[in-house]
């Protein structure tokens, strides 16, 4: 999500400081969010989206030129049961 925020911010273009000022946050917080080191509330996502001119949903959408951010893992085969009767 942070990478998408950064990508849209740079496309506008806005500095982290400018974006932070417009949403009432500190510049360091924007950097943390973009690096995935800080949690972000829905309220903040909507504020960021409004400043950048996009829906907050785009922050959850993988870019069309790259692989999906979320992939489904294969289930591992279950280990054989050791409940066998010893008689």
From TrEMBL:
UniProt KW Transcription regulation keyword: yes
PROSITE patterns named among the record's database cross-references: HTH_CROC1 (PS50943)
Alphabetically ordered keywords of this record: DNA-binding, Transcription, Transcription regulation
UniProt keyword annotation of Protein transport present: no
Superkingdom as given in the UniProt entry: Bacteria
UniProt-listed SMART domains: HTH_XRE
Ranges of residues in domain HTH cro/C1-type: 5-59
SUPFAM superfamilies assigned: lambda repressor-like DNA-binding domains
Region (Disordered): 63-87
Signal sequence region: none
Name assigned to this protein: Helix-turn-helix domain-containing protein
Species in which this protein is naturally found: Brevundimonas staleyi
């Amino acid at each position: 999500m942070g990478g998408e925020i950064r990508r849209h911010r740079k496309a506008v273009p806005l500095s982290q400081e400018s974006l932070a000022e417009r949403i009432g946050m500190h510049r360091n917080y924007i950097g943390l969010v973009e690096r995935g080191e800080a949690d972000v509330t829905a309220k903040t996502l909507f504020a960021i989206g409004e400043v950048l001119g996009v829906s907050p949903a785009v922050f959850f959408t993988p870019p069309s030129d790259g692989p999906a951010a979320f992939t489904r893992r294969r289930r591992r085969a279950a280990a054989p049961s050791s409940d066998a009767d010893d008689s």
